[in-house]
Design a protein that fits this description.
The chain is an alpha+beta fold. The protein has one domain. It has one helix and four strands, in the order E-E-H-E-E. The strands form two sheets. A two-stranded antiparallel ribbon has the order 1-2. Strands 3-4 form a two-stranded parallel sheet. The relative contact order is 0.19.
Amino acid sequence: MVRDNWHDSAYLFGAICNDRNVGAAIIMATVNTEAMTEHVKEISTRVESGAHAGIVCNRAGWQQQGEQLQVPDNITLLPLPP
């Protein structure tokens, strides 16, 4: 069987703050809890000192806060309602 080896996947994680005109983004090879942890760590570096960020999430399994997903103290995850 012929297989197309020319394509691979990349996943873009991004967030913006319209009020401050600031964004944070990373590109990952997979979508999982480890990737989400890296994403929230990157967002955390863009939050002003003394401020707090809220991230709206769609309740995907890898976005669930728990033992594996580590969320910095200056970020709160805001899951969409079911």
